[in-house]
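in:
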């Protein structure tokens, strides 16, 4: 693939996202590994292995590992344009900044609202899930007192709020430890099955294309893509990373490749644990217990007990990661004055977006109390499922924005190949557009099967998106100085 000429323009618009005032700045020194683990915690790998992998096997059949192969390739293609654009748009706004620069400010502001909504839905859903699994752990495993699930959820919100108040490095260390423990217990299971071979021995049948085509391919790939969500948040931590020009792309690619290989390997071995002829039947009959039962059989009861603890810590890590992501979206909107400027305040000592984080904790507390009278097993499922749709939509729009951005800038940007600026982003648009179609057409399934709830959630999602566009247009007419700042396009 030939390059364009004159590779001397590597610092296009170097000051585009810089703040010129003397107010405190976000502080952090995360490297590639810390940043990757911080965003991967949002994906909750152990919780996904327990709760989502059996669903992929249920819909994808024996060929379920190929659904994760397809998801990995699709998201790597997305990452090509996403990380290339980050070189020329050094802003921490992620979806917000990229869609503003590539498409327009109105869509950019709408994108930021959708991002907050999507992460908020998923975060609140996982907070409710934490209450369920923590209550079960205390009562069943530890034989402790019986408390309502929402007490545990409220405690989680408070603890996560404390972490969010301090510098990001503290959260990064905690998330790194939790992630390592999650991954370790799954890898122990993987090695046990690989060594034993399962009831039908080792087989590469799951990687035969015909194995996947026998199932509901689109739905299987959709659930596989959703398990990756969170990796795209690397760009939101730009100001808190060491050498972000290199750290952001490396952490993004590392996140996608690692979690992709992790899911492909574990899905394959989970199929082998039951045998290729029986695994889809088990997934259909006992999806919630499929992985933990296999762990008990191949590793031992102790490992199943450890998983019951680590699922709790996995949910904690996911909510903490979510808190950090949303708080920084609020911070960016506050700095740009698209939302109250107070949200853009940085703690003078800890270098954290503490006002935005505290406001988010208040929203989470209200959310838990609002759902305290409901069935949390139903509520968390539709919240988490619904939250994936706006994030998929934003990934699709971001890929479109990458194409438009590089087309508009083709005379100024001379050091990127057509692969980075045209071919990979185009393929990402096609892949993510397909995933978005399957997400919309299967939205009732994603949100738990209740059509009324699904319709209400779609109304909320599109209302938030349109509200963002409307607010941007109001700013353009009445406060043009604010409109010009949307997406950190200009900072005065």
């Amino acid at each position: 693939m030939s390059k364009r000429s004159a590779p001397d323009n590597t610092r296009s618009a170097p000051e585009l996202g810089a703040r010129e005032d003397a107010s405190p700045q976000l502080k952090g020194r995360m490297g590639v590994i810390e940043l990757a683990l911080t965003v991967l915690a949002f994906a909750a790998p152990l919780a996904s292995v327990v709760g989502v992998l059996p669903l992929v096997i249920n819909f994808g059949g024996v060929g379920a590992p190929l659904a994760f192969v397809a998801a990995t390739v699709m998201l790597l293609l997305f990452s090509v344009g996403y990380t290339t654009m980050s070189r020329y748009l050094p802003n921490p706004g992620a979806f917000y900044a990229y869609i503003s620069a590539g498409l327009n400010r109105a869509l950019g502001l709408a994108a930021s609202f959708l991002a907050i909504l999507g992460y908020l839905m998923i975060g609140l859903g996982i907070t409710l899930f934490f209450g369920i699994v923590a209550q079960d752990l205390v009562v069943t495993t530890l034989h402790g007192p019986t408390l309502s699930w929402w007490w545990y959820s409220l405690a989680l919100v408070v603890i996560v709020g404390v972490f969010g108040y301090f510098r990001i490095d503290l959260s990064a260390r905690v998330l790194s430890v939790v992630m390592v423990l999650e991954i370790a217990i799954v890898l122990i299971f993987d090695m046990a099955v690989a060594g034993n071979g399962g009831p039908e021995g080792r087989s590469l049948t799951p990687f035969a294309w015909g194995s996947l085509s026998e199932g509901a391919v689109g739905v299987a790939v959709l659930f596989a893509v959703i398990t990756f969500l969170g990796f795209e948040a690397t760009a939101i931590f730009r100001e808190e990373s060491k050498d972000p020009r290199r750290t952001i792309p490396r952490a993004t690619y590392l996140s996608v490749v690692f979690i992709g290989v992790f899911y492909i390997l574990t899905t394959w071995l989970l199929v082998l644990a039951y045998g290729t002829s029986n695994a889809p039947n088990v997934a259909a009959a006992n999806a919630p217990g499929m992985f933990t039962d296999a762990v008990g059989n191949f590793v031992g009861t102790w490992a199943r007990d450890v998983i019951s603890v680590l699922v709790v810590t996995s949910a904690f890590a996911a909510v903490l990661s979510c808190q950090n992501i949303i708080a920084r979206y609020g911070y960016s909107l506050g700095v740009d004055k698209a939302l109250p400027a107070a949200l853009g305040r940085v703690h003078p000592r800890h270098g954290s977006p503490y006002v935005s984080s505290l406001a988010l904790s208040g929203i989470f507390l209200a959310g838990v109390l609002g759902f305290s009278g409901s069935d949390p097993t139903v509520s968390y499922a539709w919240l988490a499922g619904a939250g994936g749709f706006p994030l998929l939509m934003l990934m699709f729009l971001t890929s479109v924005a990458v194409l438009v951005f590089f087309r508009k800038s083709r005379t100024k940007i001379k050091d990127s190949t057509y692969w980075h600026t045209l071919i990979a982003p185009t393929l990402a648009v096609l892949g993510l557009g397909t995933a978005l179609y399957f997400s919309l057409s299967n939205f009732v399934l994603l949100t738990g099967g209740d059509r009324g709830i699904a319709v209400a959630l779609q109304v909320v999602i599109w209302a938030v998106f349109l509200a963002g566009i409307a607010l941007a247009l109001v700013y353009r007419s009445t406060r043009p100085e604010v409109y010009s700042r949307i997406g950190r396009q200009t900072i005065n």
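note: Residues 484 and 490 are 6 Å apart (CA to CA).
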